[in-house]
Amino acid sequence: MLFELVLAVTCLAWRVWSAPARLEERQAPDGVPDYVLKYAPIVYLHSADPYMPSDLQTHISHTTPRVNFNAVSAPNPLDLNSLNQLGSDVYLTSNDDVTKNPQWIKGVKPDANGKTNNAITAAVIVNDKGNGNVDAFYMYFYTYNWGGTVLGIPQLNFGNHVGDWEHNMIRFSNGQPQSVWYSQHANGQAFKYSVTQKQDSFRPIAYSSNGSHANYAIPGTHDHTIPNFNLPGGVLEDHTEKGILWDPLLAAYYYKYDAGANKFTPYDANTPVNWLSFGGRWGDQEYPTSDKRQVKLFGQAKYSSGPTGPADKQLNRNNVCPDNGKDCILRSILVPRRRDTDGVIFEGDEVQR
Known about the structure:
Shape: globular
Largest sheet: 9 strands, mixed
Distance between the termini: 70 Å
Structural class: mainly beta
Radius of gyration: 21 Å
Number of helices: 3
């Protein structure tokens, strides 16, 4: 009897120890659609990436608003509630020389549960378009983007910038996910939800590339020399892996977006919202060639300008892809490929127009 009891306890303990880790329970304000949480993406950060997701207010606190490199008047304090008072020509310019790699630009590494403790690093924006059609945007913020190298040569490093907004978008129909958009540099990729890799059966996985934070549906090496022409190797490579788990829902702000009124409304009245109306840039202006930090070659700058914010990501787009003049290919299998230049469409793919 004693032997059987010991055996039973041992088996139970083994099951607990060997069970896959479950993600921490998401906590969101009342009113956020359940399916927006249930099917929210999980992000895997590259284990070698020194630039983790970043707290929005911390970023603002370490910058000075500048226009043409000159400081301009700003509200005091400058924070998420007052950022909208700045003009669209403003660059939130680092107070530190980023080539010295100050600690604050490195962001916050998620804990074992995927949470960025004491740091709001994401925003979820829900656009209910009516008739059961909902687009949910999952916005990810990093204080610094390392642009990568050409042909792996360290001296040929281009596209670094302060401030980095990336995102996934999931298109829902009557509460069911249909497709997923992955932002990547100048463009991105769209996949049918059914073919994406999943965490906990429902949540699609996004692999954030080392340094640049472009989002991919599969781990590995991705050449992005030509936007939407994604090969497993080439001149400009992104590298992704199933490294550090990040659950953006655990430290995020949540908003509704009214496209007709171009208005954001927080689900929680205590959530700051004015920052979403800031039309300027979330980083430094591209340094001139007179700046000793800058290198320009064939029109490419080592240090480029910071990005615009979430409101500039086509939150009311027609297709799952943003309208940028390129075909919107809704892919049906997880391989790094595109529509050929001769117009061939791979079986199962859809072209949205």
